[in-house]
User: Which sequence fits this backbone?
């Protein structure tokens, strides 16, 4: 989408550089580009080389695990190791990997479980935090993480969390952060879970260009910062404008606003943001 292409249709010029510039101008300090294959990490690293404060991940998304088989699994593993060793400063996490039982048309459950565990047990030695995907698979994900709990020393985050409070607390007790974005905040049930999470275990994200907060989401009424005057339809894009229904990193302030509001303003907005920023540095940038 940041190349101006939607589906197979070209709607406007590439504006990724403008999106990144807008993000840093809005106050972001660092951005992590999540990758889901070896090639996506290579592409992300090319972008990271242009910006000091861009970082990425390395691993295979559950919907892409069909790319693994017994004849190539070790070759793929070696590619991941090689990338991480050559780019240790820019690759700050292993992933995005995990389990997705809502999109098994891309990769069946047994294949997902096999190659999530295959990646996990081998890549633990890189001593990096885990960027974890979970869709309708909390118990199986937990069971595999629990199996390797003694070897996992850097923890990780359950990204784009939309599960129950019990599921969240189960992961927290195992040492993981809970990552929240617009897809985590669609319903009142989602918000009731979020407001009970300990602040020192919350991370925020956008998952852009996806997972923006939409007017149909229950969380929308808690937003204070709007970008409507800066937003146009993709067919009417102009340089410097945001695109309607295309999420961007700069909207991360809205995630913080929702959390602050549903927590009943227990702390100042600045204190809440500072704590979440500290959580992020603690997980991904503890050496900086």
Assistant:
């Amino acid at each position: 989408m940041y190349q101006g292409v939607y589906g197979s249709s070209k709607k406007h010029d590439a504006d990724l550089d403008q999106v990144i510039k807008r993000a840093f101008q809005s106050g972001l300090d660092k951005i992590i580009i999540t990758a889901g294959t070896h090639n996506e990490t290579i592409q992300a690293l090319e972008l990271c080389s242009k910006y000091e404060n861009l970082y990425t991940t390395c691993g295979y998304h559950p919907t892409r695990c069909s790319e693994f088989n017994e004849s190539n699994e070790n070759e793929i593993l070696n590619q991941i190791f090689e990338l991480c060793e050559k780019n240790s400063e820019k690759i700050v996490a292993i992933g995005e990997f995990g389990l997705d039982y809502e999109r098994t048309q891309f990769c069946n459950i047994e294949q997902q479980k096999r190659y999530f565990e295959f990646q996990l047990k081998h890549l633990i030695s890189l001593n990096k935090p885990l960027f974890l995907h979970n869709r309708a698979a909390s118990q199986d994900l937990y069971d595999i993480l629990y199996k390797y709990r003694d070897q996992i020393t850097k923890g990780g985050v359950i990204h784009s969390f939309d599960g129950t409070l019990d599921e969240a607390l189960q992961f927290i007790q195992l040492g993981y952060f809970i990552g929240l974005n617009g897809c985590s905040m669609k319903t009142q049930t989602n918000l009731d879970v979020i407001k009970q999470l300990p602040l020192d275990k919350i991370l925020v994200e956008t998952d852009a260009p996806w997972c923006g907060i939409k007017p149909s989401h229950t969380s929308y009424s808690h937003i204070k910062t709007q970008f409507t005057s800066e937003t146009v339809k993709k067919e009417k894009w102009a340089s410097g404008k945001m695109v309607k229904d295309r999420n961007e990193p700069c909207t991360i302030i809205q995630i913080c606003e929702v959390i602050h509001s549903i927590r009943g303003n227990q702390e100042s907005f600045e204190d809440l943001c500072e704590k979440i920023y500290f959580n992020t540095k603690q997980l991904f940038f503890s050496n900086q």
